[in-house]
């Protein structure tokens, strides 16, 4: 008769074996079939994601999967999704595959390598020197260099977040694998186009946001935040926004809270202020390195003023914002909301006075959504940038209120990422986005036609109501 530990070992090992087999199938199909193999490769990736979640769940005795097992599953999934997409996702034919932002990064890349501009980068792209500079020194073709850097930053961000969730927050391994798998598939989906538009810097932005966030929670590493902000701002000026919002949210709560928690928040204010100043210094230096060769007529203040006026003139843009977050997070946004309303009696976990809490995360997220809504048109990019905070808040809620929802959430969220369709090119002769019904721009809520935006918003509401109904059912005791 099999002993309990042997049964536990056999079940988890079998699940991990099937997980690896599904990953190998996806990689093999992608490498042999190319773009024609995308549907089958994506099915294998989706299956691998579900198997990774299933094999990371607690056993019948309640024993959690080891953190190293979940971390290995996350890194394997990130590597395979990247490899499969590289081989089988066709490059979208906007400006010869460079997209729009990619043309600006290509100009910086060429300037660092040759001293000449292919075209003059415009504001605010001329400040984003980090990734193009590193890519220019790699012994690879330009697109391959950007892709390799993108994968390195993305896998590092996922590994850092997974370790943070598993070790620092002590969250369930299956929930962590499910969340990281969502980010893997989201990166290669039409919403972020992480592989089909290879010349981009989104992965480095996610890495530095994740690093800043994780260090903010660490009593030992919090002192390094100014250095992280300084380096991050050389890659993208949004590091200043990230640090500024953490400073603002911490300052607000240091006034509202009382007792030891107020003291803990106030102790963070000097280092956060130093991080803001460091990011501002780096942003100024990065912009000035090539500014003398350019005519820069824009500014952050002018951009904010223009977008405030635009949003005020078109209040229905709020519907686009709602649909953007529904598409960006799917069930990871909707199931926690449903759990909060369906099970309001569950008390939050106790935290030490030196810890940031879920209320702090929610305040930061609200400030971030409000500021980015009036900062530009790339709502999908902004929503994705918030994922370290948003998913931490979602995972904390699910861990307390719906801990066994990981596998169901994984399977039902596939509809949001639209994994089984390759990223389409824009409609013929229609490169500029303008309320599109079809093509690449119809997949992103900031550029899709309002009928599609409303349909996705309605789908999100229905999903939320169904999830709330399911979570409201009384749970049967396990005998």
Description:
With 479 residues, this protein is an all-alpha fold. The chain has two domains: 1-90; 91-472, no CATH class. Helices cover 67% and strands 0% of the residues. It is built from 19 helices and no strands. It has helices spanning 4-33, 38-55, 67-88, 101-114, 130-137, 142-168, 173-187, 202-216, 225-235, 238-256, 260-290, 300-313, 317-329, 331-342, 358-373, 379-385, 387-401, 406-417, 450-472. 47% of the residues are buried.
Quickly give the structural class.
mainly alpha
Indicate the overall shape. Answer: globular
Helix-strand topology string: HHHHHHHHHHHHHHHHHHH
Helix content: 55-70%
Major sheet size, sense and barrel closure: none
Number of domains: 2
Helical segment count = 19
Strand content: under 5%
Roughly what is the average pLDDT, rounded to an integer? 81
How many extended strands? 0
Over the alpha carbons, how many angstroms does the gyration radius reach?
A: 22 Å
Oligomeric state of this protein: single chain
| Distance between the amino and carboxyl termini | 22 Å
Could you list the spans in which at least 5 consecutive residues all have pLDDT below 50? none
In short:
The protein has 479 residues and is mainly α.
Main features:
479 residues; mainly alpha; 2 domains; 67% helix
Question: What is this structure's SSE topology?
Answer:
Blueprint: H1 4-33, H2 38-55, H3 67-88, H4 101-114, H5 130-137, H6 142-168, H7 173-187, H8 202-216, H9 225-235, H10 238-256, H11 260-290, H12 300-313, H13 317-329, H14 331-342, H15 358-373, H16 379-385, H17 387-401, H18 406-417, H19 450-472
Helix pairs in contact: 1-2, 1-3, 2-3, 2-7, 2-18, 3-6, 3-7, 4-5, 5-6, 6-7, 6-8, 7-17, 7-18, 8-9, 8-10, 9-10, 9-11, 10-11, 10-15, 13-16, 13-19, 14-17, 14-19, 15-17
